[in-house]
Amino acid sequence: MNDNTQYIGMQSISFSNPAYIKEYYSVVGKKEGEGPLGKYFGQIETDDMFGCNSWEEAESALQTETVKGLLHKSNLEPHSVRYTFAGDLLGQLMATSFGLKSFNIPLFGLYGACSTMGEAISLGAMTVSAGYADTVLSLASSHFASAEKTFRFPLDYGSQLKSCATRTVTGCGAVIIGKDSGIAKITGVTPGRIVDYGCKEKDNMGACMAPAAANTIYHNLSDFGRTPEHYDKIITGDLGYVGQTVLFDLLRIKGYDISKVHMDCGIEIFDSSTQNTNSGGSGCGCSASTFCGYILEQLKARKWRRILFVPTGALLSPVSANEGNSIPGIAHGVVIESV
Amino acid sequence: MNDNTQYIGMQSISFSNPAYIKEYYSVVGKKEGEGPLGKYFGQIETDDMFGCNSWEEAESALQTETVKGLLHKSNLEPHSVRYTFAGDLLGQLMATSFGLKSFNIPLFGLYGACSTMGEAISLGAMTVSAGYADTVLSLASSHFASAEKTFRFPLDYGSQLKSCATRTVTGCGAVIIGKDSGIAKITGVTPGRIVDYGCKEKDNMGACMAPAAANTIYHNLSDFGRTPEHYDKIITGDLGYVGQTVLFDLLRIKGYDISKVHMDCGIEIFDSSTQNTNSGGSGCGCSASTFCGYILEQLKARKWRRILFVPTGALLSPVSANEGNSIPGIAHGVVIESV
Q1: Residue B270 pLDDT more than 50?
Q2: pLDDT, tens digit, for every residue of A138-196?
Q3: Which CATH number fits domain B1-339: 3.40.50.10070, 3.40.47.40, 3.40.50.150, 3.40.1050.10?
Q4: Which of B137, B242, B311, B339 is 20 to 30 A away from residue B273, measured at CA?
């Protein structure tokens, strides 16, 4: 083991040489822009088709716009970024393959369902902290319409949603991670396990993912010997109102009460009382765009000093669900501190 | 940058502290077992359904059997493995989610199409070499029937294949990567870019992937200042006979003739003259199972001293292809040496 890193407890890593978030950018759709976090996003696109001919191409364009905006804001050329860690929800990472190919940056394609931004930041920070790269880019996206088409029904059907259902966010968030200094530092990670409590309700993904979120948060706290109050915020991805109650209950059984410091991006991104979004927002883009806007601005302004960011994923495939299988969850935790 | 690693050229990494392949295991289907490499696989399963009720569950069972075999051969319990890096070809990594959940090992889910074993070994080696873990597991799988159902037509249709088409391998390969010593050492990696020459022929994935393979091999050779003969073998994943000719032509234009040292897992795994496999084998499991059998045995026996292993992926989605898009490719290179 080299001097700069150490592995901790069951599954966590502590970086003695932290990786730094140098810059961030997000692009979201119209409805997200009208929500409570609207002013924090980098760009709000009012055409949900992004000028394209299909929802999948629209999500690719969303990724392309986000990376362009991030590189511009960072004053970087694509060839200055050594590796990209990225993914989306679509089969075979369709949005990522077509959204990122024009940048010609070596790519590690990732699939962690809606936890992908946690996985991408973790691997990006591990790569920079180890000295494998000066500059990497981590990204995740989702699009309401491409996700509905993939996982539920085409929008044209006008299907009704259960009150426990979440609305997939049209959004993409991306960060530049690098060495030595930045607007926030990544000091540790807790990669997640697949956790399956047998939930089969694909309209209730919050309940499907909550056990995985609880598992990762529990291991982060126990691996590092911390209490929930060590963090100004413990931020899950897209559990929504229903999943949040399950998370609190599961962690109370383990002896942790996180209710005072918990925040869920899916609850924050929409105003469910006026925006008709039921249990909240979801999708890779929910936590990614909330992170690359509201969350990083709080850290930059030092309103928060230390957070545990835990994007949460439901390992749902339309085929596996139709074949009667359960929906396992996974959640990847990242410790981020202000500088 | 710490002392143990250095980044090289445009996109390669050299490990001063190599990571070691400690053990390997593979499970394949009946047809693969009857092929020229049959005696090198760990296990040949004659029931293509693996005792399950669907092709997707069969592929999950294939992964489960492979990890069980690998842990048994390694004399390891699941909790001794710190992280898994794994993926498959199905939408939302269905085979991986259900195939690996019972082991309860933290998971980084990966999608690199048929290049996934290269991505998984690269990230596993980067993680171990950096000191983030003592022991990790890297894995990739594919299943003929689940892939045909996803990307082409259900088997029951009895569709005919073009002569340039490849046959998806039913197979899974997995390695344990660790520190200090082993049966072969991983000394460098060259993560790949997305390369798109506009090929739209989903029955000719060899041609779609060859430009990406050429790009990664070219950058590996130029980053490290090596000639093709530096390697005893340069081994691509599943270009097949058609893709191989494209690869040779593209690299000759760049000044490299790799024809004397090239091997393609897709060409080796079947005897196309007697097994009716057209251009050869393909799928994540093609390069993964050939690696975790024939290739590692050559390195273990020191018949080869140094290889460049370059699994090749076609970033093909059934949706993107049906929407008229091209099929970009990606290839991840790993330098492996005998000990």
Answers
A1: yes
A2: 999 999 999 988 888 777 787 787 888 889 999 999 999 999 999 999 999 999 999 99
A3: 3.40.47.40
A4: B311
Q: Are A45 and A27 a contacting pair, CB within 8 Å?
A: yes
**What pTM was estimated for this model as a whole?**
0.97
Residue A40, number of CB atoms within 10 A of its CB: 17
Rg for chain A, CA atoms, rounded: 18
* pLDDT of the residue at B274: 94
Q: What is the pLDDT of residue B54?
A: 94
Please state at what angle helix B205-224 crosses helix B240-253, rounded to 10 degrees.
40
Contacts of A56 in chain B (CB under 8 A): 317, 319-320, 323
Q: How many CB pairs under 8 A join A and B?
A: 192
Per-residue pLDDT, averaged over B69-90, amounts to 97
For residues B198-219, b (16+ Cβ closer than 10 Å) or e, as one string?
ebeebebbbbbbbbbbbbbbbb
Query: CA end-to-end span of chain A, whole Å?
Result: 27
Q: Mutating which of A89, A320, A327 best tests the B interface, going by the most B Cβ atoms within 10 A?
A: A320
- pLDDT at res. A5: 58
The CATH number of domain A7-339, selected from 3.60.130.10, 3.20.20.150, 3.90.180.10, 3.40.47.40: 3.40.47.40
A94 touching B (Cβ < 8 Å): yes
Task: Residue B45: name the closest of B72, B66, B24 by CA.
Answer: B66
Q: Which residues contact A43 (CB under 8 A, 6 or more apart)?
A: A25, A26, A27, A28, A65, A66, A69
Query: Six-digit token pair at A252?
Result: 């109370």
Query: d(Cα B112, Cα A61) in Å, to the nearest integer?
Result: 20
Contact A215, A53 (CB under 8 A): no
Nearest CA in chain A to B104: A193
Q: What is the mean pLDDT of residues A210-230?
A: 97
CA of A36, closest CA in chain B: separation in Å?
A: 31
Report CB contact under 8 Å: B323, A57: yes
Q: Is the ipTM of this complex over 0.95?
A: yes
Is the CB of A320 less than 8 angstroms away from the CB of B101?
no
With cut-offs at 50, 70 and 90, classify the pLDDT of residue B23: very high
Residue A2 confidence (pLDDT) above 50 = no
Residue of chain A minimizing CA distance to B15: A132
Predicted pLDDT of residue B5: 57
Lowest model confidence (mean pLDDT) among B3-12, B82-91, B95-104, B223-232: B3-12
Give the whole-angstrom CA distance, residue A179 versus residue A185.
9
Are B131 and A7 a contacting pair at CB < 8 A?
yes
CB A169 within 8 A of CB A286: yes
With contact defined as beta carbons under 8 Å apart, do B76 and B135 qualify? yes
Q: According to the model, what pLDDT value does residue B155 have? A: 79
- For residue B107, the SS3 value is strand
DSSP reduced 3-state for B263: strand
Whether the CB of B81 is below 8 Å from some CB of chain A: the reply is no
Q: How confident is the model at residue A1 (pLDDT cuts 50, 70, 90)?
A: very low
Q: Does A130 contact B at CB distance below 8 Å?
A: yes
| Cα–Cα distance for residue pair A43/A38, rounded to 1 Å | 9
Report the percentage of chain A scoring pLDDT > 90: 86
Rounded to 5 degrees, what are φ and ψ at B317? -115, 140
